[in-house]
């Protein structure tokens, strides 16, 4: 049960971050995969920094942000495939 609760909380945080990113940047469907990779790489660098600093709170926040970027990228691919 505890795993299910944690999963639900994390998923909710990722979805909230997706909404935040959409409100900040608008529709990003025109990004190329190369551009998405640049964005994701930057987010991964932020995760790496939080790991280096041993800052769990910051690490969690950055992992959620990185996850939301990958989520947005997957959405863009899905929409691209659907025309």
Describe the structure in your own words.
This protein is mainly alpha-helical and 83 residues long. Helices cover 86% and strands 0% of the residues. It is built from three helices and no strands. It has helices spanning 2-25, 33-53, 56-81. α1 (2-25) crosses α3 (56-81) and α2 runs antiparallel to α3. The termini are far apart. 10% of the residues are buried. The model has no long low-confidence stretch (mean pLDDT 95).
What is the residue-mean pLDDT, rounded to a whole number?
95
> How far apart, in Å, are the first and last alpha carbons?
40 Å
Number of DSSP-assigned strands? 0
Helix content: over 70%
Number of helices: 3
**Sheet having the most strands:** none
Structural class: mainly alpha
Question: Helices and strands, in N-to-C order?
Answer: HHH
General shape: globular
Rg from C-alpha positions?
A: 14 Å
Binned strand content: under 5%
């Amino acid at each position: 049960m505890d795993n299910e609760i944690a999963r639900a909380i994390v998923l909710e945080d990722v979805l909230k971050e997706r909404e935040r990113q959409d409100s900040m940047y608008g529709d990003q469907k025109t990004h190329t995969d190369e551009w998405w990779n640049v964005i994701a790489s930057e987010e991964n660098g932020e995760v790496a920094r939080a790991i280096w600093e041993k800052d769990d709170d910051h690490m969690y926040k950055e992992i959620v942000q990185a996850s939301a970027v990958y989520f947005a990228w997957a959405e863009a691919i899905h929409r691209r495939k659907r025309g």
